[in-house]
Amino acid sequence: MFGSPSIIVTTPEASKKVLTDDEAFKPGWPISTEELIGKNSFTSISFEEHKRLRKLTAAPVNGYEALSVYTTYIEERVISSLEKWSKMGEIEFLTQLRKLTFRIIMYIFLSSESEPVMEALEKEYTILNYGVRAMAINLPGFAYHKALKARKNLVSTFQSIVDDRRAQRKAGNYVAKKKDMMDALLDVVDDDGRKLTDAEIIDVLLMYLNAGHESSGHTMMWAAVFLQKHPKFFQKAKAEQEGIVKRRPPTQKGMTFKEYREMEYLSQVIDETLRVVTFSLTVFREAKKDVNINGYSVPKGWKVLVWFRSIHYDSEIYPNPLEFNPDRWDVSSEALLMY
What we know:
The protein is an alpha+beta fold. It has helices spanning about 10-20, 30-35, 45-60, 65-85, 95-110, 115-130, 145-170, 180-185, 200-230, 230-245, 255-260, 265-275, 310, 335; strands at about 5-10, 25, 280-285, 290-295, 295-300, 305. The chain has 2 domains: about 1-25 and about 265-339, Uridine Diphospho-n-acetylenolpyruvylglucosamine Reductase, domain 2 (2-Layer Sandwich); about 30-230, CATH 1.10.630.10. The chain has a 4-stranded mixed beta sheet with strand order 1-6-3-2.
């Protein structure tokens, strides 16, 4: 598969072994994924570099400070999008959600709200995403070939933004309304005093774009579908939101980060949606040595595809695993107290 001898792991026990045994397995993503997401992304670097990059980039993306900065903007964009969709008649829900998440991510990354720029970047990114799991056939007409061109265009665009931002900061005429992710990545320094290179910054942006854009849009779509199919859970989620709004002081405008952290049941709905849907179906690993998996010999260098659903649908961990039930994540529930 993907040009390499491979084995697919589909049982919970075997999946956990492959994912946790770092002595025997290492990341083994397809060539297409490594080339398109980038040689400096989490999919391609060593374990030590992975720890370094994650430590340097986690806070600017989803740390408390970052989330509190963007809460107001996200709320405004969601409200305006809902109002727009309500007047459009029938819509293709996932397409609209993807546009919304892309707009939010571009604002968080680059402080950009330019419609032409966002449309051009989203078009290139969509082409790139089609090639991430494709066979690495670099011939005209194949998804990988088109995706390589899209990556080249995206890298060129991001590089020009990096160059412009560096030049403005050096000249002292860059005034930011807020510190976006590009600023954070330009400023961050590791324990050895080393800053990120342009190539690292661009690959990190592409990696987080890939991780955040598609998964966020699909998760919101499926959460809406599941809540529509299960009125009981919808009413519980709705009551929580109404309670938060009811407790607001009369002078408050908009949602606060404190209110976001009070959305415990909505968080359970999201966790259950991610469990049932399992957006990333497989994780790719590679055998670092000859290894035995449940009686099957896997030679060194072979790819091991872990079927994530085998874990998320493990009935020993999740009773009635095919059932959508956000209540299973309640820390006071009997289901969780059993484990």
